[in-house]
Amino acid sequence: MTGWVVGFTIGAIVVLVVVALVVPILVLAHRIGRQAQEINAALAEAERNTRPLAALSDTIEHADVITAGLRRGRLRLGG
């Protein structure tokens, strides 16, 4: 009977140690998951806010065409 009690006690201690090690890992994983959602939302907002920058090269090209036209006009007017 004593062997069973010792074995059961050792088993209970092992289970408690495993739980003590796994619970903080699960809590940390939950926290990381929550932060990942917040980070993803912030990145989506940053992408949405910077989307117009993709057309910046088109704007620069149009500005170059306009300034070149103004330059030609100035030269034709003698200025």
Précis, in short:
With 79 residues, this protein is mainly alpha-helical.
Strand-helix topology:
Elements: H1 2-50, H2 56-76
Task: Explain what you see.
The chain contains 2 helices and no strands. It has one domain. It has 79 residues and is an all-alpha fold. It is rod-shaped.
Tell me the structural class: mainly alpha
Helix content: over 70%
Poorly predicted segments:
none
Number of strands: 0
Share of residues in strands: under 5%
**Could you describe the largest sheet, including whether it forms a barrel?**
none
Overall mean pLDDT stands at: 93
Characterize the overall form.
Answer: rod-shaped
**How far from one another are the termini?**
111 Å
Jot down its keywords:
2 helices; 79 residues
